[in-house]
Amino acid sequence: MIRKTIKNSLWLLPLVVLLFGAVQAGAAISVQCPGDVNGDLIPDATIPAGFPNAGQPNPEYDPKVVCVHITAGDGFNKMADGYDLYTFGFGLVGPTSPTTIVPTGQVVPDFALKALNPAPSLILDEGQELYLTLSNIGLPMRPDLFDSHTVHFHGFPNAAPIFDGLPENSPSPNMGVSYTYYYKAAVPGTYFYHCHVEAVEHMQMGMIGNAWIRPSQNGTTFTLQDGTGRQYTQFAYNDGDGSTGYDKEYPVQMTAYDSSFHDAHINVQALPFAAMYDNYHMINGRGYPDTVNPDPIMNNATAFGAAQNFEAQNMNGLIQAAQGERVLLRVSNVSTTHLYAIATTLGVPMKVVGRDASRLKGPTGKDTAMDLNVLEVAGGQAFDVILDTRDVPPGTYFLYATDLAALSNGPEDRGGIMTEIVISAP
Question: How many domains does the chain contain in total?
Answer without folding.
Answer: 1
